[in-house]
Amino acid sequence: MRKIALINHGCAKNLVDSELMLGKLAQNGYRITLDDNNADIVIINTCSFIHDAEKESVASIFDMIQKGKKIIITGCLSQKYQKELQELIPEAGAFLGTSDIDKIVDTVKKVTKDKTKIYSVNEKPNYIYPEDIERQQITMGASSYIKIAEGCNFKCGYCIIPQLRGPYISRKKENIIKEARNLAKKGVNEICLIAQDTTSYGKDIYKKPALTELLKELNEIEELSWIRILYTYPSLLTDELLQTINKLDKVVKYIDVPLQHVSKNMLELMNRPVEDYRKLIKRIRKFIPNAAIRTTFIVGYPGETEDDFNELYNFIKEMKLDRVGVFEFSKEKNTKAYKLKPQITAKVKKQRKKILMELQQKISKEINQKLIGTQIDCIAESISEDGIITARTYKDAPEIDGLIFIKADAPVEPGDIITCKITGANEYDLTGSL
Which of 49, 324, 414, 434, by CA, is between 20 and 30 Å from 98? Predict the structure, then answer.
């Protein structure tokens, strides 16, 4: 049986798809390796959210071609460019779209046996989560992602995701609970709930938002310690949901709510909820006094004036959010923003991002330094030979936020929830001791 490797690009949602494909292959007897040099076939699960992500995916594709590997291209790049990609990369053995991962085994069989090119990309993706597959996890550790829904029904002006991923489809609650229990039995101590928008969970199958009910049931799983919610939508952060997050002991007090901008002019152009986000932040802090709030903003969206940008700058300066990411607008075909005018120059976009990131670095450092001398809960990720624990506080999501480095004599295992004293801080990371 031939060895198969997989290279994953993009977000955590893509990572889950990669693990599902590997799980299906493992169930059918294929040998999986994380070393692409030692593989006969390499699956490249691509991202196409912005140009930089596409470049990374394309670089992996041509690297594998240069190494003489038989490659299968899956995910967003195949979905976005469909037929064009076959002409651009004739060396590829197969192309699968975002909702075609259930075809991975048949595709591998055909690619292995003959030289026929396989093309299986649904023109209109309609993703159904394959509940019969046990994920083959690429990154086993203290934390794991659980995809609770796929697709998106919103029509944000800059976003290609609804076209790449199809309509919003929730998974059944009992299937999510079952997966969480299985992960916990394997030693996962923190689950991160993901979807394009977690706050819409259940609206399609239960005819009402069901995230609060899901959280309550997940909170009953004894082996789990932390439940983290990512990708919430600002207009759907209801009082009930915030109160539930505050009340449930295993749900970490971490609100990830991508706002994208704050100017009324920009929000209208982006086709985003037009509301006073100062009130939203104050409401979050009212219901969850110790909430760590993370958001992202887009600078350089077509039509963004100096006044719009200054309004965003002043918002960040005033609200003092724990975590802020800033992205330069990326012009994507088949989006509303593609033809909007005036387009902002690359130089201005880069400068605006730099200004906001420098402001947030100062804010982040101030927030972190106020933690010095306090006690805070952390999840251990790894322990070095010299006894330094690398961990994350409840304020930090895996892979995107900061870390805390802890000196400890006491025995600690990855996944343990520990309380440590903060002894030092910089813009992003902390140091501590037990």
Answer: 324
**20 within 8 A of 135, measured Cβ to Cβ:** yes
What domains can you pick out in the chain, each with its CATH number?
Answer: 3-120 (3.40.50.12160), 143-368 (3.80.30.20), 375-433 (2.40.50.140)
Residue-level pLDDT, tens digit, the chain, 434 residues: 678 999 999 889 999 999 999 999 999 999 988 888 889 899 999 998 777 788 899 999 999 999 999 999 999 999 998 778 888 898 899 999 999 989 999 999 988 887 778 888 888 898 889 999 989 888 767 899 999 999 999 999 999 999 999 999 999 999 999 999 999 998 999 999 999 999 999 999 999 999 999 999 999 999 999 999 999 999 999 999 999 999 999 999 999 999 999 999 999 999 999 999 999 999 999 999 999 999 999 999 999 999 999 999 999 999 999 999 999 999 988 899 999 999 999 999 999 999 999 999 999 999 999 999 999 999 999 988 888 999 999 999 999 999 999 987 778 888 999 999 999 999 999 999 98
